[in-house]
Design a protein that fits this description.
By secondary structure, this protein is an alpha/beta fold. It has 14 helices and 15 strands. It has 2 domains: 253 residues, 3-Layer(aba) Sandwich (Peroxisomal Thiolase, Chain A, domain 1), CATH 3.40.47; 162 residues, Thiolase/Chalcone synthase (Peroxisomal Thiolase, Chain A, domain 1, 3-Layer(aba) Sandwich). The strands form 3 sheets. Strands 1, 2, 5, 6, 7, 8, 9, 10, 11, 14 and 15 form an 11-stranded mixed sheet that branches. Strands 3-4 form a two-stranded antiparallel ribbon. The radius of gyration is 20 Å and the shape is globular.
């Protein structure tokens, strides 16, 4: 037996604003959340980042609790609560013990609590007493537990950490659990993608790998929003971002019992590995193309039925060109007809959270999530901003600079990750 699984709630804490409507409005307007780096350090060249200045962590945790957790936790809780509210999913005491056993959580994160760990190491080196919670925050799985405890979910509490693919694979894990018929399996799983570790140490690490933009915006801070340029000929690397995005996945009967309106069908998922190099994709891109093909097959669709693709689109010279190769390889003659897009020009690269950032962006656009009640919806494809100079190696439709109106209902979210990983998700919006 394979259960039908639907998406009933979305949540976002992003560099474009807090909440899905703010996120969608920023994307529709083609705004950038990239700003000058908020600190100076002679050890790094980076001068821009994409952080979340509108988010107040005390809106979800007390000041005392904030000292005990890494930065991603309050962001993840805020996104999770928003998604749960839209899905009509009670949390904490309102859920009740019996109902709480049918709700699980999967966190996807790349860096996890690395910011907390680095701060405690620094404290120890300078003779200060590190936090009692250093070890629990240094193990990613405990961060999923932190969220489950706060939300009151007693189903599986899981964590996936597969680099940039972390939250995409968290979605895939949740989908497979909900599709199955194992005794005691949950009916509902909340998937969160979250990362927040913009520090000199992580920026330096990215600089050493030569994957991050080191363009100097200190003399012209007003130009910092142009720093991330997916598919543009002048791109020179990604901009490190942060944030949290969440989706609620339900078996269809569970959604109906709560009278939650399904937003989309969680249609397909697939993952492959190049088995090639720890940070570079295999130039033939066969395994990336295979992940996209398998995700469509898992959804019961032909590739020609996919109408829009959210590209990983990091803004590095190599990956953007090779991802274009992969899409051509997978989709063949259909590739030029796809409405493509990447939001990393707007929000930077939130590392392990990027899969859910892309999924929420895509669904928010296709469902016109920024449209006020009573106003006719105007679905759109988010733009790839800062794409002004065509690159012959990137010659597909990436929806440059301006959001495009659309009637699309079927989307593929693509992801490439360090460790030679490839992940693809397929979703279909519902009336």
């Amino acid at each position: 037996m394979r259960h039908d699984v639907v998406i009933t709630g979305l949540g976002a804490v992003s560099p474009l604003g807090v909440g899905v409507p703010a996120y969608a409005a920023g994307l529709r307007a083609g705004r950038s959340g990239i700003r000058p780096l908020g600190f100076a350090d002679d050890r790094i060249k980076s001068s821009a980042s994409a952080q979340c200045p509108d988010f107040d962590p005390t809106s979800v945790l007390t000041p005392a609790d904030l000292t005990r957790v890494p930065k991603l936790i309050p962001m993840a809780l805020a996104a999770a609560r928003e998604a749960a509210a839209q899905a009509r999913l009670p949390i904490a005491e309102a859920l009740g013990r019996d109902a709480s056993r049918a709700v699980g959580l999967v966190l996807g994160t790349g860096g996890g609590g690395i910011d907390f760990t680095l701060s405690q190491a620094d404290a120890g080196h300078h003779g200060r007493r590190p936090s009692l919670w250093t070890i629990t925050n240094a193990t990613h799985g405990n961060l999923a537990g932190e969220l489950s405890i706060s939300l009151g979910f007693r189903g599986p509490s899981l964590c996936v950490s597969t680099g940039c693919a972390s939250s995409s694979d968290a979605f895939g894990m949740a989908l497979e659990v909900l599709r199955g018929d194992r005794a005691g399996a949950p009916d509902t799983i909340l998937v969160v993608g979250a990362d927040a570790h913009v520090r000199w140490e992580t920026l330096l690490g990215m600089e050493l790998l030569r994957v991050i933009s080191t363009r100097d915006f200190r003399a012209d801070p007003a130009a910092a929003p142009t720093a991330s340029r997916p598919f543009d000929k002048s791109r020179d690397g990604f901009i490190l971002g942060e944030g949290a995005w969440a989706v609620v996945l339900d078996r269809l009967p569970a959604a109906r019992r709560r009278e939650a309106r399904p937003i989309a069908r969680a249609a397909g998922y697939a993952a492959t590995c190049d088995a090639f190099h720890r940070v570079r994709p295999d130039p033939d891109m066969v395994e990336s193309a295979r992940a996209m093909t398998l995700a469509a097959q898992d959804a019961g669709l032909h590739l020609e039925e996919i109408q829009t693709v959210h590209y990983h689109g990091t803004s590095t010279q190599l990956n953007d060109a090779l991802e274009t190769v992969a899409v051509k390889l997978a989709f063949g003659d259909h590739a030029p007809r796809l409405a493509g897009h990447s939001v990393k020009g707007a929000i930077g690269h939130p590392q392990g959270a990027c899969g859910m950032a892309a999924l929420v962006a895509t669904l928010a656009g296709l469902t016109s999530a920024d449209t006020p009640a009573g106003v006719p919806p105007a679905p759109f494809i988010p733009p790839t901003i800062n794409l002004h100079t065509p690159d012959p190696a990137c010659d597909l439709d990436y929806t440059p600079n301006t959001a495009a109106p659309t009637q699309a209902t079927t989307a593929l979210i693509n992801c490439l990750a360090f460790g030679a990983k490839n992940t693809a998700i397929v979703v279909q919006t519902l009336p």
